Amino acid sequence: MSGESSRWTSSWRKTSAVGRITFRHQFAYKTDFLLRCFFLLFILYVFIQLWSAAYDGNYTKEIAGFTLKHMIWYLVFTEALTLAAPPLCSRIEEEVKNGDVAIRLIRPQSYVAYHFSVYFSEALLRFFVHLLVGSSIAWTFVGAPTFGFGWFGLLALSAGALTITFLLLMLVGLCAFWVEETSGLYFVLQKLQFTIGGMLLPIDLMPEWLQRICAWLPFQAALYFPARMAVHYDPTLLAQQLGIQVAWIIGLGFAVAWLYRRGVTKLHANGG
Questions:
Q1: How many angstroms separate the Cα of 98 from the Cα of each of 91, 101, 103, 183, 272?
Q2: How far apart are the first and last CA of the chain?
Q3: What residue numbers bound the domain in which 106 lies?
Q4: Distance between CA 154 and CA 134 in Å, rounded?
Q5: How far is it, in rounded angstroms, from Cα 94 to Cα 128?
Q6: Under 8 Å between Cβ of 93 and 170
Q7: Would the keyword Transmembrane helix be found if you checked this record's keyword annotation (predicted)?
Q8: Coil, strand or helix: which one is 229?
């Protein structure tokens, strides 16, 4: 029992150390941050113009329970979560192509745990920076975010949302162990997140038959849940959505573990 406990403690220390180093490493790339923030401001400005036209500039009009202010802040939250995800698939693909994966696999740390610690450290910093930048333009055009406990709902569901996004990206990234090139699969995953994940518009605005399909897929738990909870806080729904996120994390976690075990036996590393 003590040996098992010591093994888990050692694994946690390695994971947290990698996470801390990655977090500090991010501050060295200020230009990259500035470019992403500029892109976020541009995208949100376009969305504000489009939705203002759809609402005829009426701040009291509701579409599927969303006022113009709700809609713009909803988009701020989905964009902050989407842009928070680091390019995990391309990193794994590059490791396989140049042979670095062979070095990663013999290190005394789980390959998946290593990438999770790097991913989560980067994603957390990016999420809060993008949330701050996105809030500045939304506040300017539609007013202050008076969502009360909605902020608690956003933060409570965002950790699970980022974890589910990591597991989905890891499933695609691990396919590089077989095919090396995963950009096509990543393209499909990204577009599914944009549409039926609720990034471009709330799932409430979609046809009822499509909403029923979305309810059986993990994409809404990664974007729609936290953003909608922020603008429409509901404690009962929050508990239900947290439970759905945990179920998806367990299910996708088993899928990642299974794919990783199969992939390692098929892997042909390149490089010297």
A1: 11, 8, 11, 16, 8
A2: 41
A3: 3-270
A4: 15
A5: 28
A6: no
A7: yes
A8: helix
- HSE value, Cβ hemisphere, 13 Å, CA-based, for 236: 0
Total residues found in the chain within this entry: 272
| Residue tagged 């949302």 (tokens) | 161
- pLDDT tens digits in sequence order for the chain, 272 residues long: 566 677 677 767 777 777 677 666 666 667 777 888 888 999 999 999 999 999 988 888 899 889 999 999 999 999 999 999 999 999 999 988 888 888 888 877 789 998 998 899 889 989 999 999 999 999 999 998 888 899 999 999 999 999 999 999 999 999 998 887 899 999 999 999 989 999 988 999 999 999 999 999 999 999 999 999 999 999 999 999 999 999 999 999 999 999 999 988 877 665 54
* Residue 121, both tokens: 């450290």
Total domains in the chain come to 1
Name, in order, each residue with C-beta under 8 angstroms of 135's C-beta and a sequence gap of 6 or more: 76, 145
Q: Which two structure tokens, joined as six digits, stand for 206? A: 């979609």
Which DSSP string do the residues of 236-249 spell out, in sequence order? HHHHHHHHHHHHHH
User: Where do we find the tokens 């390692």?
Assistant: 264
3-state class percentages of the chain: helix first, strand second, coil last, to nearest 5 = 80, 0, 20
Sign, Cα dihedral of 225, 228, 233, 237: negative
